[in-house]
Design goal:
single chain, mainly beta, SH3 type barrels, 12 helices, 50 strands, SH3-like_bac-type
Length: 826
């Protein structure tokens, strides 16, 4: 295929182009046509690269760049191809490379040179002169596989030296080569030729051919028809007819049309019909007279319109003295005798694109801008000069006139504004090694580029966490990470990752004092950052917190710390709305709240507030009302510290721990519960009550009373049975019933009671302070530990206070209630 510039020059001159492909790069057909590459010859040899660096291609396609070879590289050549009007060598390693002698040298292998064809016996007498009947390609050898030397215009006289095998050796315009005899007039002295035999049918019965490429079968004879299927390369197809370059074939039970260009020739003894003359695309000619356009190629066809003399009309084909033309939107036929002849080709040399870098990137920069200058030329004109940093285009160079270049290369038609310049600001180049590419693009999309390697050196960026020491434990619902980040060109972002997953971006640009030593960096006094995240996303144990700073120049810097979490969250769904349960609690009539030391009835709004998990789950105190109360291992020293100075409970750490372990209850919760119920070990029930008599019916003041003889001293550490109004009476009678006659028995017995009645009870499942106070299962709110609507929060306060004293807490699980969505009217 000719290059775009060559095709345009030929079209302007009105020259017929004949391109014969003897070898096709086979690929999958998507549109009914292949990207063709003509094999010029199979001459093998050795190629040496002359250019400083030269691209090699993965296929015979100027866009299929694969890799570059430096000057002096030698490689084995196996074939020569014509690709888009230029030449390529196919290398032994399967790649392709330019055959332009400006860039390579080629030494043919002596052994592989083709043996000269035997000299044909001259078929014509000396001085045989003939006339071309069409624009005709002169080739370097007798066959379409040889390169085209020139195109001889229709009607030109050529001197014929010999004729053999349908090819004539001729001389024209001082050049000697071979042309097809099909497009030469008969010799003047030759006898009249015998009438041409009647051609055999195009596709005789039983015509079977093979595909020479993966070939699209279409629904009609043309690329505009839909594709029915793709027939694999080498497949046998049955041909029923051939017309206009398309064959009607059957394959795999389906019938359709394929291009005959990719089928083998039929086996037949009938002579192949002579090819039709070729007319170049956009062949425009001028009418020499007022000329009739007819509906067909002959005077017997009707006249469609008369074309005035001197009119330029496009010719699509010429055959049998008639030209198929288009005029005023109509297509028909006119006599070619009354049209001007096409001009002989004037092919302008295909000038190479030139790219010269006069100020190239340095090997390294110490925090400096990168300045690039040079000039570029292409015969089609330079569209733009792009600058790429690490393979990504970052801008287009400014262009200006370079009279010195433009005066030195006058053969280039389009050479204005050949100079260019571009500055890559240092603030846009990160620390480290980079590639800088200068890419010039011609108006005809020709590309030429130079690539350089450079290193940018700057002060190292800094990102530091100041709020947490690596390995610290996290005990709150939300944790705030603080620190500072510095970069020579400024900071654009600080992202935060938790265990490898990004969870957000920190707020940056915060004021920070004491940064005077960092004067080399951009705005150190505003280098602070802060990020707050929900610790529910953390896993138990160690968690990786990675902060990644991105500088405004693209430089990345990270800092990683480890934070430990001992909390795990689950949700428990309830079937009704929060308002429903708050009203149900109010309906019981027992909900109370404490105001100024007095107990009063709670409102539905009061109850709803203390029922709503949203008011407490993100509270560093309130969250403990949702903590599961199962046993955890705690050092005795911690428990002793909690009980120190707490009245009768002081020194009882081992008693609490043993009973908690036996009954699977959290000892810190139990102690917090006991401290609340006993007023830090000072209540009457905790310090012992002497029981002399008891009611027959518990919690019934009007039931009979019986004596206790002898009287018994009892203890109650958890207010069990201590109902409002007569707490000491009923609390002591319950302690008597349970046999809690010593502080140790009261502690162990009370813990067992809590475990069996609430925390570990398989029916009630009240394993959190929240569910001990508000139990929603069943047909109503009942089996609740306290009537104080804030009891669970008060217990949580004590637990949090004690937890804050423990350096290494074990894993905690939190159960968060969820409720049915409230409707608007609710």
């Amino acid at each position: 295929m000719l290059s775009k510039k060559t095709r345009m020059a030929l079209v302007k001159a009105g020259v017929a182009l004949t391109v014969t492909m003897t070898s096709i790069g086979v690929g999958s057909l998507s549109g009914g046509e292949l990207a063709l590459a003509a094999v010029i010859n199979t001459q093998s040899g050795t190629l040496t690269v002359k250019a400083a660096s030269l691209w090699a291609y993965s296929s015979p396609n100027w866009s299929a760049k694969s890799r570059t070879y430096p000057a002096g590289t030698t490689m084995k050549v196996v074939e020569k191809h014509e690709v888009d009007g230029r030449y390529m060598y196919k290398l032994e390693n399967g790649l392709y490379i330019s055959a332009n002698t400006l860039y390579v040298t080629f030494s043919p292998d002596t052994a592989s040179l083709p043996a000269p064809a035997p000299s044909p016996a001259p078929a014509e007498q000396a001085g045989d002169t003939r006339v071309t009947t069409a624009n005709l390609n002169m080739r370097s050898g007798p066959g379409t596989g040889y390169s085209i030397l020139t195109t001889i215009p229709k009607g030109a006289s050529v001197s014929v030296a010999s004729v053999s095998g349908g090819w004539a050796k001729v001389t024209y315009g001082g050049r000697t080569g071979y042309v097809s005899t099909s497009y030469l007039s008969a010799p003047a002295t030759a006898p009249a030729p015998a009438p041409a035999p009647t051609p055999a049918p195009e596709s005789p019965s039983g015509d079977v051919r093979k595909t020479t490429a993966n070939l699209n079968m279409r629904s009609g004879p043309g690329t505009g028809y839909s594709i029915l299927m793709t027939i694999p390369n080498g497949s046998s197809v049955t041909v029923s007819s051939v017309s206009g370059g398309w064959a009607k074939v059957t394959y795999g039970g389906r019938t359709g049309y394929v291009s005959t260009s990719y089928l083998t020739q039929p086996v037949t003894t009938a002579p192949a019909p002579a090819p039709e003359p070729v007319t170049p695309a956009e062949d425009n000619r001028t009418t020499l007279y007022n000329l009739n356009m007819r509906s067909g190629p002959g005077t017997g066809y009707s006249i469609l319109v008369t074309i005035p003399k001197g009119t330029s009309i496009p010719v699509s084909s010429v055959s049998g003295g008639w030209a198929k033309v288009t005029y005023s939107g109509r297509t028909g036929y006119v006599s070619a005798a009354y049209l001007s002849e096409p001009q002989a080709p004037v092919v302008k040399p295909d000038l190479p694109m030139m790219l010269t870098i006069e100020a190239a990137p340095n090997e390294s920069y110490a925090n400096q801008d990168i300045v690039i200058k040079g000039w570029a030329l292409d015969d089609s004109g330079i569209k733009d000069v792009g600058i790429l940093l690490d393979g990504v285009q970052i801008g287009t160079a400014s262009r200006y006139s370079r009279p010195d270049v433009e005066n030195a290369y006058t053969t280039y038609e389009s050479r204005a504004n050949s100079g260019f310049e571009f500055t890559i600001p240092k603030s846009g180049v990160s620390i480290g090694t980079h590639t800088v590419t200068v890419r010039a693009a011609g108006m005809d999309d020709t590309i030429k580029e130079n690539t350089y390697t450079t290193v940018m050196v700057k002060e190292s960026p800094i990102v530091t966490v100041t709020s947490h020491t690596s390995g610290a434990a996290v005990r709150t619902e939300k944790t705030t990470i603080e620190g500072f980040a510095l970069n020579v060109d400024g900071v654009s972002q600080v992202s935060v990752e938790l265990n490898g997953t990004k969870i957000g971006n920190a707020v940056i640009g915060l004021a920070r004092t004491g940064m005077e030593t960092y004067a080399a960096y951009a705005d150190p006094s505003n280098s602070g950052f802060i990020f707050t995240f929900d610790t529910k996303a953390m896993v138990q144990g160690n968690n990786s917190i990675k902060l990644v700073m991105t500088g405004k120049d693209g430089t990345l810097k990270s800092e990683t710390i480890t934070l430990a979490s001992n909390e795990f969250y689950i949700e428990k769904a309830y079937p009704q709305t929060l308002t429903y349960y708050a009203k149900a609690e109010l309906a019981k009539g027992a909900a109370i709240k404490q105001v100024d030391g007095k107990w009063i009835a709670a409102t539905v709004e009061d109850i709803r507030y203390y029922m709503d998990p949203a008011n407490f789950m993100n509270d560093y105190i309130g969250k403990y009302m949702f903590m599961k109360l199962s046993y955890i291992e705690v050092d005795n020293a911690v428990l002793e510290q909690m009980l120190a100075g707490k009245g009768i409970l002081s020194g009882k750490a081992q008693v609490f721990k043993d009973a908690c372990k036996e009954n699977n209850i959290n000892p810190i919760y139990v102690i917090a519960h006991a401290l609340l119920e006993t007023g830090n070990g000072t209540s009457v029930l905790a310090n012992g009550v002497l029981v002399k008599e008891k009611h027959v019916v518990f919690n019934d003041l009007f039931s009979p009373v019986i004596p206790v003889d002898p009287p018994v001293m009892v203890y109650n550490m958890f207010g069990i049975g201590a109902y409002d109004g007569n707490a000491v009476l009923w609390g002591s009678e319950r302690a008597l019933d349970k046999g809690w006659t010593t502080p140790d028995l009261a502690i162990a017995g009370g813990i067992k009671f809590l475990a069996e009645s609430y925390i570990n009870n398989i029916t009630y499942m009240q394993n959190t302070l929240y569910t001990m106070r508000y139990r929603f299962e069943g047909y109503g709110l009942w089996h609740q530990y306290s009537t104080d609507i804030a009891w669970h929060y008060k217990q949580a306060r004590i637990i949090q206070r004690e937890f804050a004293k423990i350096p290494n807490l074990p894993r905690f699980e939190f159960e968060i209630p969820t409720f049915k969505e409230e409707l608007p009217q609710q």
